[in-house]
Amino acid sequence: MPNFQLTQFDDIALLRSIQPNRLRIFLKRFDNYLLSQGFTIPDSAEFTDAHLHQLISIFNTHDGSTPADMIEALFHISETANDQSMESMLLVATKTGIELPEGDLTPADMALLVWLHDPDLLRRANCERIVLRFQSFYCYMNRTLGVPEFELPSDSVLKTIEERTNQFNRNRQRGGGAAVWMYEFSHEIAFLIRFGGPLRREEVMDNDQCRPDIRRPVGYDLVVYNQQTGELRIRADLVSERRFYCQVFSEQLFGDPAFFEHGETFNLDVIYQLGEDVQSPGMVPGIQSIVLLEIQEVLLGERALHITLKSEAIFQAIREHNRQLTPSGRLLSAKFKVSLEHGGDVIVTICSGNKIRLSRQVGLSAINQWLVHHGIRVPQHATLPMSATTTVASHQAHSKPQGSKIPLASRTG
After folding, report:
1. Following DSSP, what letter does each residue of 290-347 receive, concatenated?
2. Half-sphere exposure (Cβ direction) of 413: Cα atoms closer than 13 Å
3. Reported pTM
4. Mean of the pLDDT values across residues 350-366?
5. CB 390: neighbour CB atoms within 10 A?
6. CA distance 30 to 90
7. Does 395 have pLDDT greater than 60?
8. Angle at CA 72, nearest 5°, toward 209 and 85?
9. What is the pLDDT of residue 64?
10. Nearest to residue 183, comparing CAs of 192, 173, 174?
11. How far apart are alpha carbons 138 and 134 in whole angstroms?
12. Residue 349 · residue 296 · CB < 8 Å
């Protein structure tokens, strides 16, 4: 996931939207740190524009002395200070008995109110937003023959994952400070992981004076286990991080370091084989129609050539222009529009390997059945070995007979 950035706290209007006394109560928790940064909390809870601009500068210039609790609070407040998260926070307040003040509350005000009542409630609301929102995950299936029995990990297991994460990051010069929170959403178990990034040294202007600024940014990753399918989904930037999470969660949840094998879940080469028939719903209940909108292909060699084909109906367009796919190439990604019988359209983008992105979290079961039916998703519990990463090695690993071409007309005529 992206490094910690308080994009919303660049705007003074966000701080103005928070009830002044509530903001003062929050700041008092970090009184000593704020004093060390030259900020004195006003006694009357009357914040001038100068006060708020100084706070924005402090919030966005965190260093090694910045309290971890303050950084985490600002992150979750910044992430949930929006209309979409407001509904979930109001629901949290109703369920947990948080007394709401009279009058209107802004999203930022509501987020801070929930944090002051119980930080874990806001963590959960933000984690749920991340799990359900439009974004991509890397998917890994376990290697057993069925969905395994699963027990929620204990606090000691979560502590072990934290320690292993700290060790992993320290070996890469990132430092410690990792934390793991677990939340249950229906049949999915989400693990929100905080970690420290590499040390950064920059020059900043402070009262017209240039000074060095040394900081270690904070990042958040997400690991989600689906109890119904036995699949692990990971939201992390680096291959080494995803491989580490596969191993540590395999070991700590199921006692087998190789339980979630770091293999390919999606195989786009079937598009070469099926042609236009890949758009067939395959008698899957709930799917009305499927249209291929975009593909990215690479022709391998000493100088790789990347080709993107994009249209509202790719097969018809390519047939009209007398074009065809090249089986000696490799498909990198494919974008489909899946029209559901009840639920509208979902844009599904699949990258060769493990990555899938859905525009909306609806119709997931039907979409998964369609992927398995056509062989785009490798059958459950049978992952392919990861592809070679270099161009030459990838070419050798995916070489196909030269000269043969498959026209993009329907295989049924």
Report:
1. EEEEEEEEEE-SSS-EEEEEE-SSHHHHHHHTT-EE-TTSEEEEEEEEEEETTTEEEE
2. 0
3. 0.62
4. 84
5. 9
6. 27
7. no
8. 115
9. 66
10. 192
11. 14
12. no
